[in-house]
Specification:
Blueprint (H helix, E strand, L loop, with lengths): L4 H17 L3 H12 L4 H26 L4 H24 L4 H40 L14 H18 L5 H10 L1
Length: about 190
């Protein structure tokens, strides 16, 4: 088995970035594999998803130990995202084999990356807006008292479905798309 040191270095850099931010694995690694290392899109998506199977439990374990996991939210996200991720893979199979499916995966990957980039901007804007509201609340302006967290199952399942479908087809989205969706919803 041959291990390309450049691919390994790219994986290390992407893993470090994901560890710092909690998002970006598929949005960084899959395009790197396709554009820089000339890996076929389907193989890049599949490889990134398998690598995520190793990385995600590690990150999840850290959050479990810190007590930052909302299990109700996780449950409803999984209800939508797990079946949708399988459906995304089935959609890829229905697209056919060979050059046609590779081209379609490349197009889907491009769209997912554009949406992911847009979601980065949306996340920054949402966080800035929230920080402004908190600052106003502390300086005697409009009150921003946060009420108790109220789980919204149906919209959460919807976020899971969209995120799972996109991840199943492109390996992009579990961090960017779902995080921004949850920020908007909650």
């Amino acid at each position: 088995m041959h291990i390309d040191p450049y691919v390994a270095a790219a994986g290390l850099l992407v893993g470090f970035t994901v560890g710092l931010t909690g998002m970006g694995g598929g949005a960084l690694m899959t395009p790197l594999l396709v554009l820089v290392f000339k890996v076929q899109p389907l193989a890049a998506v599949s490889s990134d998803l398998v690598a995520a199977m190793v990385m995600k439990p590690v990150g999840g374990g850290v959050h479990l130990r810190r007590g930052t996991v909302n299990f109700g939210l996780v449950r409803w996200l999984m209800v939508g995202s797990v079946p949708a991720a399988f459906a995304g893979v089935l959609v890829l199979r229905l697209l056919g084999d060979g050059a046609v499916v590779q081209a379609r995966i490349g197009q889907a990957l491009g769209v997912a990356l554009l949406v992911a980039a847009s979601s980065i901007i949306a996340k920054a804007l949402l966080q800035a807006q929230r920080a402004r509201r908190v600052a106003l609340g502390r300086t005697g302006g409009a009150s921003v008292a946060a009420g108790p967290f109220r789980l919204r199952p149906l919209p959460t399942v919807g976020i899971g479905v969209v995120g799972g479908l996109v991840v199943g087809m492109t390996s992009v989205g579990s961090g960017f798309l779902m995080l921004v969706g949850l920020l908007v919803l909650y």
